[in-house]
């Protein structure tokens, strides 16, 4: 850029962005700090350019044409497309007032570029009515700075004597250097705005997962309640069967005692008969005694079989109750795990909600 033929007509400060050439959707910031963005008028070619310099390179070098349009996408952000540079530029301002001033100047420059093109096509004198700049005899003008809100500097061209070399050097330095003490919250805001869609998508996925976990938790609670009812039924059944089994054992014990008493009575009768009758009656008494003993042994075997069957039934009932208790324990442990996972998920959702801008 030659300062002899180009002069700034308006300057402001803003965070500069360019559209991502790969996705054509996300914004790529030019730096962490706000940069000076200026409108320049080339009196020789009668063209207008938007220029922003960051360090030793030009971040924006866009020639304004009548076909361009500056669009306000929010209260502090605007953008325009440059077909020559094959990109889209975005500017984030410190206030809505700065955005409005830049948009108004863009419209003025666009109108001046249109009139200049028409004059050029008609072969007439090239002038810029919108900005009051003529293509002939455009004297170089010094820069007068006016501090606006937020200590942003706006430069306007005024008629005066030509600036000296010191003034030009100061202008170059101001255009190439960024403000070291500029706050960084605007750049962080735009960076967070770029990732806002990703956070919103993650939040929707987390809500869907939370709904699924709630459904699973309700199913686990219903299963746990069913198992608790089953355990209660088994305990009640075992409590009801226990007295019956005890009574059966007592009945079997009494039957055994009665049989033993009967055997003893028969033995006494046999001894008495032996004493009274002597030898000839010994054989029949022995036969009768053996028959009685066989009856007693048969009855004892039946009673023992009944006793073992009752004991097996009792053991099976106890085993069934233990299995039910184990199932309830496993269900309770699984329920605790689900509750812990749900708590962790709620904490994650809360952190996502707090982190979302």
Features:
rod-shaped; 12 strands; 357 residues
Report on the structure:
With 357 residues, this protein is of the alpha+beta class. The chain contains five helices and twelve strands. Strands 1, 2, 3, 4, 5, 6, 7 and 8 form an eight-stranded antiparallel sheet that branches. A hairpin with a 2-residue loop joins β4 (47-54) and β5. α4 (196-277) runs antiparallel to α5. It is rod-shaped, with a radius of gyration of 51 Å.
Layout of helices and strands:
Elements: E1 6-19, E2 27-29, E3 35-42, E4 47-54, E5 57-63, E6 71-72, E7 77-82, E8 87-92, H1 96-122, E9 127-128, E10 133-134, E11 143-147, E12 153-157, H2 165-176, H3 185-194, H4 196-277, H5 282-355
Antiparallel strand pairs: 1-2, 1-3, 1-8, 3-4, 4-5, 6-7, 7-8, 9-10, 11-12
Helix pairs in contact: 4-5
Number of strands: 12
Structural class: alpha+beta
Distance between the termini: 40 Å
Largest sheet: 8 strands, antiparallel
- Specify Rg, calculated over alpha carbons: 51 Å
Mean pLDDT: 75
What's the shape?
rod-shaped
Oligomeric category: single chain
The number of helices is 5
- How much beta, percentage-wise? 15-25%
The parts where pLDDT drops under 50 for at least 5 residues are: 124-164, 175-187
Helicity range: 55-70%
